[in-house]
Amino acid sequence: MKNYKAMKSAKSWSVKKAKVVDQAAVSEVTDSDGKVVRAAEAEQSHEELQLVQKRYDSNSGKALDDSVQSYSLSSLASDISRIKAEISRLQDEQADMEQTLLLGHRLVNLLHQAEEILL
Questions:
Q1: In Å, how far from its chain's centre is CA 115?
Q2: Phi and psi of 79, rounded to 5°?
Q3: pLDDT given for residue 55 in this prediction
Q4: Cα–Cα nearest to 13, from 70, 77, 67
Q5: Rounded CA gap, 16 and 66, in Å?
Q6: Sign of CA dihedral 80, 82, 84, 86
Q7: Residue 7 pLDDT > 90
Q8: What are 23's strand-pairing partners?
Q9: Which end of the chain is more exposed for a tag (fewer CB within 10 A), N or C?
């Protein structure tokens, strides 16, 4: 969900959590003898985040259908975990480079000291 902060500050976007029904619930149906003709099935649904932008016709000012961008909550959680892992990896790499640089500076100083002793 890139640029969320900018969109929110522009106040032209809103965010909402929505329940999306993938399959409606089906109630049990029985015949006159009480035999089940159709078994009951539970509703299947999931939640998602929706970024909603109000849209208007620039000529008439009349409201148009909202623009809706949907994001799966599990997908967003997965993206966050992936980004945190990448941040951790980069911080480790940075620490290794800083340590290498520090050791390099120490080595250069030692070489300068050795040169001074030898001269």
A1: 56
A2: -60, -40
A3: 87
A4: 67
A5: 13
A6: negative
A7: no
A8: 44
A9: C
Instruction: Identify which of 25, 21, 64 has the alpha carbon closest to the alpha carbon of residue 43.
Output: 25
User: Whole-angstrom Cα distance, residue 51 to residue 1?
Assistant: 9
**pLDDT band for position 27 (cuts 50, 70, 90):** very high
Question: Rg of the chain's alpha carbons, rounded to an integer?
Answer: 31
Number of Cβ within 10 Å of residue 8's Cβ equals 13
Q: What is the largest CA-CA distance in the chain?
A: 111
Contact 15, 50 (CB under 8 A): yes
Element (H, E) at 102: helix 73-118
Query: CB-based contacts of 18: which residues, under 8 Å, 6+ apart?
Result: 47, 48, 49, 50, 70
Is residue 108 classed as helix, strand or coil in its secondary structure? helix
Degrees to nearest 5, angle at CA 33 with 32 and 39: 85
Using DSSP bridges, classify how beta strands 13-23 and 44-56 pair: parallel, antiparallel or unpaired.
Answer: antiparallel
DSSP 18: E
